C-alpha cells in the first residue's frame, strides 16, 4: 500500500487543534474525512506533531496510507478540491513505508508572530499577537539566546503535560524584526513540550516590556519553577513553520 507524505498549511482559528476530538473540528479529523469521502475508505492521517486549538501551520507534515496508486499531484489536487479553504495541501510525495511523519522527524521549527507598538488591528486578530506598547528587542534576544543548547524545560511544561521527558535541545532561538511593527520569534528544537513555545514567548514579552530582567530566563532553566514563567502567550500568533527529516541516502527514499 503506497504511503504518501503530505506538506500541509492551515489556519487553525476554527479548529480544536490538530488531533481528532470527540467533539469539535480538528485538522486531522477534517483530513481523514476528506480522504474517506474521496476514496470510500478510512485511513489515518498521522501528523508530525499536535498543534493546539487556534495554532496555525505553514509546514505541518503528515503521512497517510491509501490503497490506490495515485500520482502525487493528482492526490494533492483531489484533496484540495474537497478540503475547506483554511486547509491546503502544498505538496505530496510517495515515500517508503518506513517513513513516519512524527518519529522520523529530527527537528521542528515554530514561529510566533507579534505586532507591537501600535493599536490592535481587526485584520490581524487571528494571525498575530497584538501588543500596543513597544518591545525592547535587544533585551528579548538576550533572553532568547539563553535557551540555545540542551536544557531541562520543566519550567515551561504545561499543566497536565504528562510524564514526557523535559530535556530538549534548542538549535535556534532568536527575535527577528520585521517591517511595519511586526517581529517574529523563531525557535528550532529537536522536539517541544506541550505549550512550551507559548510559555517561552510569554516570558520574552514580559522581558521586552521591562517587567522582568533577561536573567529571568536563566533562572527558569535553573530552578525549573513554572510559577516564575510569564503569562502563557495566546495561540493565534503561533505557527508550526517547518519539520525537518534526515537527508535520504543515495538510492533510498
Can you put this structure into words, describing what you see?
This protein has 2 domains: 3-103, Alpha-Beta Plaits; 107-243, Pseudouridine synthase I, catalytic domain, C-terminal subdomain (Alpha-Beta Plaits, 2-Layer Sandwich). Strands 1, 2, 3, 4, 5, 6, 7, 8, 9 and 10 form a 10-stranded mixed β-sheet that branches. Helices cover 22% and strands 28% of the residues. With 253 residues, it is α+β, with helices and mostly antiparallel strands. The chain has 5 helices and 10 strands, in the order E-H-E-E-H-E-E-E-H-E-E-E-H-H-E. It has helices at 27-39, 72-82, 137-145, 196-208, 215-223; strands at residues 3-10, 46-47, 56-65, 87-95, 107-116, 129-131, 149-152, 167-177, 182-189, 238-244.
How much helical structure, as a percent, in the residues?
10-25%
| Strand composition percent | 25-35%
Number of H- or I-type helical stretches: 5
Total of domains: 2
According to CATH, the homologous superfamily of the largest domain is: Pseudouridine synthase I, catalytic domain, C-terminal subdomain
Radius of gyration: 19 Å
Overall pLDDT level:
94
- The separation of the N and C termini measures 15 Å
What is the structure about, briefly put?
Helix content is 22%, strand content 28%.
Describe the SSE topology.
Elements: E1 3-10, H1 27-39, E2 46-47, E3 56-65, H2 72-82, E4 87-95, E5 107-116, E6 129-131, H3 137-145, E7 149-152, E8 167-177, E9 182-189, H4 196-208, H5 215-223, E10 238-244
Parallel strand pairs: 3-10, 5-6
Antiparallel strand pairs: 1-3, 1-4, 2-3, 5-9, 5-10, 7-8, 8-9
Helix pairs in contact: 3-4
Amino acid at each position: 500500500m503506497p504511503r504518501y507524505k503530505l506538506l500541509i498549511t492551515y489556519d487553525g482559528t476554527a479548529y480544536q487543534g490538530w488531533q481528532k476530538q470527540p467533539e469539535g473540528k480538528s485538522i486531522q479529523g477534517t483530513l481523514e474525512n476528506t480522504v474517506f469521502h474521496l476514496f470510500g475508505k478510512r485511513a489515518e492521517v498521522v501528523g508530525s506533531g499536535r498543534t493546539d486549538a487556534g495554532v496555525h501551520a505553514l509546514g505541518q507534515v503528515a503521512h497517510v496510507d491509501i490503497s490506490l496508486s495515485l500520482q502525487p499531484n493528482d492526490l494533492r489536487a483531489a484533496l484540495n478540491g474537497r478540503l475547506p479553504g483554511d486547509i491546503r495541501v502544498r505538496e505530496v510525495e510517495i515515500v517508503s513505508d518506513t517513513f513516519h511523519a512524527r518519529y522520523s522527524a529530527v527537528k521542528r521549527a515554530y514561529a510566533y508572530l507579534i505586532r507591537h507598538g501600535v493599536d490592535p488591528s481587526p485584520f490581524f486578530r487571528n494571525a498575530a499577537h497584538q501588543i500596543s506598547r513597544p518591545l525592547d528587542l535587544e533585551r528579548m534576544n538576550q533572553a532568547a539566546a539563553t535557551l540555545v543548547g540542551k536544557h531541562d524545560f520543566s519550567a515551561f511544561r504545561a499543566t497536565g503535560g504528562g510524564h514526557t521527558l523535559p530535556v530538549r535541545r534548542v538549535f535556534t532561538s532568536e527575535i527577528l524584526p520585521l517591517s511595519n511593527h511586526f517581529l517574529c520569534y523563531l525557535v528550532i528544537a529537536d522536539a517541544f513540550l506541550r505549550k512550551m513555545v507559548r510559555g517561552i514567548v510569554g516570558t520574552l514579552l514580559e522581558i521586552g516590556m521591562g517587567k522582568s530582567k533577561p536573567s529571568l530566563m536563566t533562572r527558569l532553566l535553573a530552578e525549573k519553577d513554572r510559577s516564575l514563567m510569564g503569562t502563557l502567550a495566546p495561540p493565534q500568533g503561533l505557527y508550526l513553520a517547518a519539520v525537518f527529516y534526515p537527508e535520504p541516502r543515495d538510492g533510498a527514499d
